[in-house]
Amino acid sequence: MSSVVNEKVNHLDISWNDPALLNPLPNKEQILDYFSGRSNPFYDRTCNNETIKMQRLSLAHLENMVGVEYILLHEQEPILYVIRKQRRHSPNQVTIIADYYVIAGTVYQAPDLASVCNSRLVSS
């Protein structure tokens, strides 16, 4: 459990985009490549996605690996995508680390429940 807590870095106050890659906006097939941009502070270069990219394998191979990975959780083309960072323990067991949403090419970290509750308590 402590390793998951250490991975939860609060990036709620920042956003990222790469204007060079935004014309045209990335589609469903391109969004994970866009998210893996070199300057994206949300992306972990040691993830399994990088391994399969270097080996030129499909994303389906992620299910058979153990470690941190990114998946496309939801899309509403052409403007909204939700990407999940998770730690895979086995083909059927994952621990969610963070969710990110991409709106018109800008990436934001989605707040977790504790952040939302704290914000509501402070504002009331």
From TrEMBL:
UniProt-listed GO biological process terms: regulation of transcription by RNA polymerase II
InterPro entries with a match to the protein in the record: Mediator_Med6, Mediator_Med6_sf
GO CC annotations, alphabetized: mediator complex
Keyword hit for DNA repair: no
A GO molecular function held by the record: transcription coregulator activity
Keyword Transcription carried by entry: yes
Subcellular location per the Swiss-Prot or TrEMBL entry: Nucleus
Stored Gene3D superfamilies: Mediator complex, subunit Med6
Keywords, in A-Z order: Activator, Nucleus, Transcription, Transcription regulation
Quaternary structure (record): Component of the Mediator complex.
Family the UniProt entry places it in: Belongs to the Mediator complex subunit 6 family.
Function, as annotated: Component of the Mediator complex, a coactivator involved in the regulated transcription of nearly all RNA polymerase II-dependent genes. Mediator functions as a bridge to convey information from gene-specific regulatory proteins to the basal RNA polymerase II transcription machinery. Mediator is recruited to promoters by direct interactions with regulatory proteins and serves as a scaffold for the assembly of a functional preinitiation complex with RNA polymerase II and the general transcription factors.
Identification of the protein by name: Mediator of RNA polymerase II transcription subunit 6
Species assigned in the record: Ciona intestinalis
